[in-house]
Specification:
single chain; elongated
Length: 61
């Protein structure tokens, strides 16, 4: 469980960084904004995938 917790913590930390950057208007142009939003969405998807894998693992026990 340690690795999962480390991963989840790192992803949430990066998501927080992106959210702050977007809120502070740090995206230099439209392409940078799209990249940040896309990265945020990708991180959300990775957490959903991990959550589904962990749920499947619990059901298999």
């Amino acid at each position: 469980m340690r690795y999962e917790s480390d991963f989840i913590g790192a992803v949430h930390s990066r998501m927080d960084d992106i959210a702050v950057s977007l809120a502070e208007g740090k995206a230099s142009d439209w392409a940078a904004y799209q990249r940040l939003v896309g990265e945020y969405g990708g991180l959300q998807n990775s957490l959903e995938i991990l959550n589904n894998i962990l749920k499947e693992d619990e059901r298999d026990r």
